Amino acid sequence: xxxxxxxxxxxxxxxxxxxxxxxxxxxxxxxxxxxxxxxxxxxxxxxxxxxxxxxxxxxxxxxxxxxxxxxxxxxxxxxxxxxxxxxxxxxxxxxxxxx
Length: 99
Prior knowledge:
The protein is an alpha+beta fold. The protein has helices at about 15-35, 70-75, 80-85, and strands at about 1-10, 35-45, 55-65, 85-95. The longest helix has 20 residues, at about 15-35.
């Protein structure tokens, strides 16, 4: 089943994100390589493809997992969680209706 992981970043998360980004992206790419990733990306803090120093306010990942518990475990093991980027995390089932 698909699960949406939606979170808000802590204030001024850019330095934390930058430090953990390579490891985070390796995990996301693994989902992609396994054919389990539907989409993922951050929410820019300003209306720009590259928000620069403004950074990001959170992120969204939609991916396939065997269960809600597995999806929660995956995001809880993420480097962004380990360095303190993530706050106000929501993980819930997602039904894809259109591409």
